[in-house]
Amino acid sequence: MLNEWVQQIAALCQPDSIHLVTGSDEEARMIEQELVASKTFIPLNPEKRPNSFLARSAPDDVARVEDRTFICCSKQEDAGPTNNWKDPVEMKGILNGLFTGCMKGRTMYVVPFCMGPLGSPYSHCAVQITDSPYVVANMRLMTRMGDQALKLLNEKAFVKCIHSVGMPEANVPWPCNTKNLYISHFPESEEIWSFGSGYGGNALLNKKSFALRIASTKARREGWLAEHMLILGITNPEGVKRYFAASFPSACGKTNLAMLTSTLKGWKVECVGDDIAWMYWADDGTLRAINPEAGFFGVAPGTSYDTNYNAMKSVEKNAIFTNVALTDDGDVWWEGMTKTPPEHAISWLGEDWTPASGTKAAHPNSRFTVSSTQCPILDPAWDAPSGLPISGIFFGGRRSSTIPLVRQALSWKHGVFMAAAMSSEMTAAAKGEVGKLRHDPFAMLPFCGYNMGDYFAHWLSMEQSGRKLPEIFYVNWFRKDASGKFLWPGFGENIRVLKWMFEAVEGKVNRVKTPIGYMPEALDLEGLHLAPGALEELLAVDKEGWKKEASDLASYFAQFGSKLPEDLKKETDNVTRAVL
Fold it and tell me: At 552, which CATH number?
């Protein structure tokens, strides 16, 4: 079936040659040399950054393009009001026209890859066909790919991913066709077709497209969860270890949190994954999670040895950087990387840049790609085929007011409500107005492959007899005071909030019941100097703010109509009554 499918796509796309990717080191060097020859890759100074490269995208191909991302299922109601829906037959007609001859003069790469630990019963395999060697180089770092995945491939059932940059015979460093962008998902046939973009999640179909949009529909059918979540292990001074999953919208500090360096003596954090979690119910009733990815695709700006030491250590070698600046000594730089910017650099646009230029040296959504194995605090069991037991799940967004620093759900239903009520101030990871507040339930708004009303119901259905449900929490590191300054220092100090959640799971904290959840009576602030009254403000229940929150939420939920679970209507009513 694989060979038949490859030949079928080749006949449509008409490449000059076909390359079955093996994943070998020799092959990787060959692809890197090809990318250097085409000027897609700029080799970095081997003494500064061994075996690492810089790529610059086209200026109009820099982020996920949500308005060109489609769910193509038979019934529009199955896609829901928050997805762009297209009839699958109509979309296939459009795509067949675009893909005809789209790889003339190019090599068609066939990339078998496995999402999840090799040999795990929770992992799933796929094959991506692409005409972008840049995609192949990134997927080598982000997935378990090549021969090792090919051996595990189920000939009868694998996710089919087809991608083209849409510029046949193009001899440019960054081929793309942004006038004809389509990122199309067919959940019923488990296919992904992406045309026109060479960037990030638009082209790396292993990531959001497979691991979330297609996987979420599989998870619903099969009774598990495919989530936009990091996974971390926390060990207390007594040596007790617990695993937590956490969900934040893109560019809200997920990677910083996943690689957190604790400021509390005796408390240790280890990273399992920074972006996606697949979670399954084990026979003993525990919720177990795997990280389907094998690498990081992190946002560069703001990342430094001060804010995320472990991420910076991870990218010291064998890394791909996209849309950052090139320094005069052949290294990379981005805003926030150092306290003092370089006197001169070449910007992500390939132009001379100085601090006086008045423009950004790196694009706000510039990225680094690197293998998980280079993370200094990678959890020793990160690749365990059996997955890791999840004690708690927490959610959060970027909110400057109303939402407190931390609270614990009153029940599983209330926890699902809190996650469904998530909203965040927008960042540069997706096209849109930066700073504007938008609802992003479960941080899955751009990534759920089906109707969000059904998604909420799927989460509520997880509460079943015999299951050990994780505790649910909600955090907000981004609350500001009246002058616009952050009330909480964040970064490594977030261990103090993690400690409270860790001990709440064990029933060892004093807490106060409020209309919006259980709140801490105290946090461990030893050695931390907060402004007078800051903690009280961080943990305050702003009744006026919550009145508006509940009203906005009722309006937002209304779009799901009869698909909105009754339990979420009741939880909204409970909050509204409590704060009035």
Answer: 3.90.228.20
46: in domain:
no
The question of whether 252 is a catalytic residue gets the answer yes
In a domain, 59, yes or no: no
Whether 47 is covered by a domain: the verdict is: no
92 and 20, same structural domain? yes
Whether residues 463 and 567 fall in one domain:
yes
Extended strands (E) in 1-106: 17-20, 41-43, 53-55, 69-71, 84-85
Distance in angstroms (rounded) separating the CA atoms of residues 334 and 327 = 10
Instruction: Using alpha carbons, list the distances in angstroms from residue 495 to 339, 418, 487, 511, 525.
Output: 24, 22, 16, 18, 10
Residue-range definition of the domain harbouring residue 151: 2-41+67-223
pLDDT digits (tens, 9 = 90+) for 6-59: 999 999 999 999 999 999 999 999 999 999 999 999 999 999 999 999 999 999
- Domain count for the chain, please give it: 3
Q: Tell me the pairing of strands 17-20 and 107-115.
A: parallel
Q: Which two tokens stand for residue 485?
A: 């300054």
Both tokens of residue 279? 């979670």
> Could you write out the DSSP letters of every residue in 377-430?
TB-TTTT-TT-EEEEEEEEE---SSSS-SEEE-SSHHHHHHHHHT-EEE--TTB
Q: Domain with 307 in it: what CATH number?
A: 2.170.8.10
Among 236, 288, 509, CA closest to 393: 288
Q: Region 318-345: what's the mean pLDDT?
A: 98
Tokens of 100: 């005809």
* Of 311, 336, 371, the domain-final residue: 371
Nearest in space to 444 (alpha carbons), one of 434, 433, 436, 455: 455
- With a pLDDT cut of 90, the percent of the chain lying above it is 91
Determine how many CB atoms are found less than 10 A away from the CB of residue 84: 14
- Under the banding of pLDDT at 50, 70 and 90, the label for residue 435 is low
Distance CA 539, CA 278 (A): 32
* Distances, alpha carbon 305 to alpha carbons 258, 366, 390, 495, in Å: 15, 17, 29, 17
Instruction: Tell me how far apart the alpha carbons of residues 113 and 137 are, in angstroms, rounded to a whole number.
Output: 13
* From 102, 114, 176, 252, active-site residue: 252
**Of 335, 35, 23, whose CA–CA distance to 172 is shortest?**
35
**Considering the domain boundaries, does residue 54 fall inside one?**
no
The arrangement of strands across the sheet holding 295-299 comes to 41-43, 53-55, 320-322, 367-371, 295-299
